[in-house]
Specification:
By secondary structure, the protein is of the alpha/beta class. It has two domains: 56 residues, no CATH class; 223 residues, 2-enoyl-CoA Hydratase, Chain A, domain 1 (Alpha-Beta Complex), CATH 3.90.226.10. 38% of the residues lie in helices and 16% in strands. It is built from eleven helices and nine strands. The chain has a seven-stranded mixed sheet with strand order 3-4-5-6-7-8-9, sandwiched between helices. Helix 5 packs parallel to helix 7. The longest helix has 17 residues. The radius of gyration is 22 Å and the shape is globular. The chain starts with a helix and ends in a 7-residue tail after the last helix. The relative contact order is 0.11.
Length: 286
Amino acid sequence: MNWISEWALPKIKTLFGGTREVPENLWHKCPACEQMIFHTDLERNLRVCTHCGHHMRIGAKARLDATLDEGWQRIELPKAPADPLKFRDQRRYSERLKDAQAKSGMDDAVLVGHGAVGGQRAVAAAFEFAFMGGSMGVGVGEALVAAARLAVLQDAPLVVFASSGGARMQEGALSLMQMPRTVIATQMVKDAGLPFIVVLTDPTTGGVTASFAMLGDVQVAEPGALIGFAGARVIEQTVREKLPEGFQRAEYLLEHGILDMVVPRGEMKATLARLIRLLRQEPAAA
């Protein structure tokens, strides 16, 4: 019998009122510079590294909280068929959906809210990459169509924060149909004479890039965001050439005319408010 662990330590713990539980994940390591960041500092800085400025991924609700003025409202989205193809790989698609919904608190990979951006009325949609990689299925298509209709109804610009791995393979051809659907949705907004602004975040790839995400009146991106259709390795194997440094990153695309601006997350709200004001030709607030 070890008298230190069996007798002495319990006595000491009782004497000092027991041990306190230390919360986990108090510190986060930056994936870019590998510096440790205290969790409150990271959240206060909108999940941007305080050492090197690397932009980490952020949830859809946190994104809208940081973009829309206080008091914004989330809208109820149309319900999509849960598992239209009864798809199964290693697990049933219906089970994957339930897990993603339980972890995220969302029905699908897009959250839509309406309110104001710096006092300018707006409708905003944000992708949740943690929900099955932000993949675009029928539910995402319904969400973007609903956001476009609400923007037209409220005579407000539409801002979409894209973050996706592309089409959702578990929904097969139905997921591919969302590409033309979302293009038509963006055209509804433009036909109404309203601004459509896309903010490309890390990562934005596949069918999302190949549809609505490249149709904004203004194309904005966050620093270092991966943006493209196919992966770099696939492109290299196809063209049999070494790709340039920084290929498919936001700064490279800005340099080559694909983007209009690259804006740090901390400046995004003010920049969007200014863009909306300019596009709507409204005077600046006093």
